[in-house]
Write a structure and sequence with these properties.
70 residues, 23% helix
Length: 70
Amino acid sequence: MPKIHITAEGDTFDALALDYYNDEKLASTIIQANPDYCDTLIFDADVSLVIPEVYAVTYPETLPPWRRDE
């Protein structure tokens, strides 16, 4: 079951991914679950975001080479 995160001012997708998944590379998972905020870089306070559960880690093909675990 997905979690709901209420942002604090200054939250970012990659920081949330690091907090919830221990891997900032999974920021795209949170972005995909919250398409209304895909253009947001830094959040204001009190924004409600869905944090989906992650069972298997798959990185998007568009991930730059320096962010891959190859």
